[in-house]
Amino acid sequence: MAKAFGATSTTDEVLEGVRLSGKRVLVTGVSAGLGVETARALAAHGAEVVGAARDLAKAKAATVEVRAGAANGGGLELVELDLATLASVRACADALIADGGQFDLIIANAGVMACPFGKTADGFETQFGTNHLGHFVLVNRIAGLMKPGSRLVNLSSAGHRFSDVDLDDPNFDRTSYDPWIGYGRSKTANVLFAVEFDRRHKASGISAAAVHPGGIQTELSRHLTPEMTQALIGRINAAHRAAGEPDFRFKTIPQGAATTVWAAAVAEANEVGGRYCEDCHVAEIEPDPVKRTGVKPYALDPERAKALWAKSEEMIGERFP
Length: 321
Description:
This protein is an alpha/beta fold. The protein is 40% helix and 14% strand. The protein starts with 10 loop residues before the first helix and ends in a 5-residue tail after the last helix.
């Protein structure tokens, strides 16, 4: 019988007894937090990890323990990737294609959260451009390197409940910018991208899932002051209490990365393909906009996923099969 995991499970608990020797994995955002822990856990179980980061010097320093703890043929190499610049994204993809190494897993982990209004090098709103469009281009460009049976795992967030995507005004050209609405749009996009990628590649034996890691104190919250964090937790707890749910609790980084490695290497592909996962299980659809757990219906809407794909291709000026 399969082991049961939950909100407090760690990466090491989830991967206990799992051998990943011979598996090759791409993880974006390996310069801090969840990306480093995800790489560490996978390499410790034998995976060859390709870690992508904008700042290679920072990533090299942050991943010393990843290399030291690699076992059973596991290891780590680093590649440069700035998701906020499509020239960098395309250069990274070109280098991976030229290398020719195939992947068993791609984990789209990197991202930004609740940042002040800004635009990427290509003129996209920072959160949508970095969290969604950067990964959209990277993953689709290297999709030919994904083996049959491989998986894509997109890191989303319970923050997807803040907003559906806005396909008419993705860059806030006509809408007043709110950092949490921008974050919500980008995290919903991460789910919808997984839904459509899974549909398009299922016949080739390739699946895709989205995961919510939980609330973790990492560099992702660099734009939040302590007062903003406390105010956010206060709003979450008020909603939880009204719904009869327990108060919010931060996860540790190993607990936060557990759902990622569970969806990537432990769960059955047909269990998680095209789905949204949290606390090491597939989440239930929850239409109540106040509730933090579960996934909002619009994030799994297949027609919405197709429309986002088409809009994303239009924005980046590139089409993918």
